[in-house]
Amino acid sequence: MVGEWEPKNYPQAETMKQSIVHVALVVRDYDEAIEFYTKKLDFTLVEDTYQPEQDKRWVVVAPRGAEGTSLLLARASTSEQEPFVGNQTGGRVFLFLNTDDFWRDYSSLVSRGITFVREPKRESYGTVAVFRDLYGNLWDLLELRSRKAQEEQDAFDSLCADTLTRGDAAFIHQHVVDAFAAQQADESTRPIKITFALVGLYLMVERQVSGRQVQRFHMQLAQRKQAWPAFALPANRGSMTAIDVMRADEGAQRDAAIHAWCESVWAAYSGSRDVVAALLRERGII
């Protein structure tokens, strides 16, 4: 019988297939933890089975629709385990909850009384905010940047490197900045940033104003503090992106692509035109 359990020699070329099934989360009480994770975080209770041999419950929860790792809610049963309830990582963020729609889930969690200790922020890898669970464990709520979004960011960076080093009097770089800002804006974007981007696009597309002139008008707008408009963000932000612009040959063709890009983004924001024009009239710019 012992021989049946002896290690076997596998070919080196054979690749192991492994995965992490559960992560143990030390909790104070099974039922209060289940209540929080299923009602506040809207997780699914996957299993709750009593294990008489150990006088414990096997409690597993997971985000709705998740197919990967789940949480094993493990009640602290000794005095050595109790201090780690809510502090398994010494104050660092412990768990990472990825979502396909950050703002949907952020708003939902706030409405259920979840406390966020770090406000939403756009990072190079995506959008993230930090919240506490009922015991004080820190979680990241994050929506990772898609491959397409990263490709657009890379194309924008390359386009900036191109337009910033030209030294052209018209300063076409300003149009690049405005188009990208308007196209990438989300609920965390400051109203002044969206306003300046749309002002730049309006002046460029409808008034044929150069990038250098747009820059001066931005400075004029910034001289007076005011409450900036809250613009509706269209679902479709234009038919072109920085990727399309970078596909054009350097020189006149790329400049034409920049103008076409600005026009497509501005067309997507057509519902905001009157607000932008009214602001510029009020400030004596048009």
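Next protein, fold it too.
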Amino acid sequence: MPFRNTVSRAAFAAFLAFCERIHLSIIFFASCGFSSKKDEIVYAEKALVEQYRLAIKHTAESLLGAGKSLAQNDPMRQLRLGYSILTKKERVIRSIHDIAPGERFEARLADGTLVGEVIDKIVTNE
């Protein structure tokens, strides 16, 4: 089953874990030998409430982790750390080979944008 992102993969894993816990609860429930139907219902209700509580807790922890990951990878955070995003004609410049001397570019910073022109290129990693 293809997943588009890690959040849906984590949610699916949480769902499978929840199903496994429910399955184990049903097996335990069947082997208990309750004295009345009321006792069976009370136990089943408590077991289901606990399983849902654990599933919600696990899902909340997964969402919290995903939120932290999103915050760490926020482009504005990177700009506030002192990095910039260089673009030429609204396309990101990822390599020194994406732009030639004499071409204009924009450097997006945390508090604004600079416009510049390439004077020279110095290749360091080839």
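About the second fold: The chain has a mean pLDDT of 82.
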